[in-house]
C-alpha cells in the first residue's frame, strides 16, 4: 500500500506526535480483544454497565467491525493537571461544588480529536489510500484496552489506565487504520498488593480488582438526569460532575501534576463554582460559562440537581429561600423533588413550612414522595407534628 516501510512509517508518526504535543503514543494490533469480551459480558449480566457504552459487545472488542480490514490502532495519551492552583474556598453561606479533573479546561474530546486528525492527515500524506477511523471515549472500542495493548500503560485495579510518567491523569484516544504498523509491546506492570482504591471508593463501586459497578459509581451517578437513588444522596458530597477518589488515593498518582497542555488548565472559579448561583442559571448562561467543558455534555439539569444535594450536604441554611423557589416554581419534577429532600435535610422552621405548603399544592406523585421524605427528617428529629 505504501512505499514507506512499516517501521519507518511508525517512527514518522511518533515523531509527528511529539511535534504536536502528544504526550504518549503507541501502536497496537487490530486483533480482537478476546479477554475483554468475557469481562464485558459478565459486566452486562451482573447489571454493572452504565448504559453509555455501545450495547453490542462484539463491536466493542473487534476493531474490524468499526473499520473493515483494520490492521493497526494508533493510541495516544495527553496528560492533564491534578492540582488546582489557588483554589477558592467554601465559606459559610458561600459553599462551592467541584468538577472532577477530567472536566477541567477545554473538553478533551475536541482536543484529542484535533491531535488525532493531524496524525491522520500526516498518515494519508505518506499513504494516500489509507483508511482510518478516529475514536475518543465515545467510540465502540475500549480506550483503556487499546492503550494497554499499545504499551502506553496498564489498567489498574480502579479500572483506570496508569502510566509511568503521568499516573492515571491522562486522556486517551485512538485511530484505527488498515495500514500495517509494527505493534509496540504491551505493559506488563500492575498494582501489586495495593487495594487503596477499593477501600476508598465511597460507594463500594469497585466490587473487585479491575471490576466496576458503574450503576453505583459516583462518576456515573453525577451524570444521570433522574432522581439520585436514596443510598447515594449522602455520598455525593459537593461533587457536581465526576469523582476522583480512586485516583487521588492511588500511590502511582502521588505528587503527579502536569499542566503543560494549555487547553486543560482550569479556571478555579469555574471548576469549583459557588453552588447557589447554579440553581437559577439560565440555559444560555450555562452554555456560555460551562459549554466548553466535558462536564457540560448532559446539560445543566444534572449539575443543578447535584448542586442542590451539595447544599444539603453542607446544611446551608442560607440556601433555604433559593431551594424554596425551586420547590414552588421549577417546572422539572426532579429539581422540585430534590429541593424538597434537601430542605428536609437542612432543617429549620422556614424549610418545614415550605414543605408543608408544597405538600398541599404539589400534584406530581414523585415530588410528593420527596416532600414526604423531607418532612420525615423533621419527624425523626421530633420537630414535626403528626398529620392527624
From TrEMBL:
PANTHER family per the UniProt record, alphabetical: EPOXYQUEUOSINE REDUCTASE (PTHR30002)
Lipid metabolism is among the record's keywords: no
GO biological process, one term: tRNA queuosine(34) biosynthetic process
Source species: Thermoactinomyces mirandus
Pfam family, one: Fer4_16
EC number in record: 1.17.99.6
Example GO molecular function: 4 iron, 4 sulfur cluster binding
InterPro entries linked: 4Fe4S_Fe-S-bd (IPR017896), 4Fe4S_Fe_S_CS (IPR017900), ARM-like (IPR011989), ARM-type_fold (IPR016024), PBS_lyase_HEAT (IPR004155), QueG (IPR004453), QueG_DUF1730 (IPR013542)
TM regions (residue ranges): none
Keywords tagged on the record: 4Fe-4S, Cytoplasm, Iron, Iron-sulfur, Metal-binding, Oxidoreductase, Queuosine biosynthesis, tRNA processing
Enzyme class: oxidoreductase
Coiled-coil blocks: none
Protein name in the entry: tRNA epoxyqueuosine(34) reductase QueG
Domain 4Fe-4S ferredoxin-type: 181-211
Domain of life: Bacteria
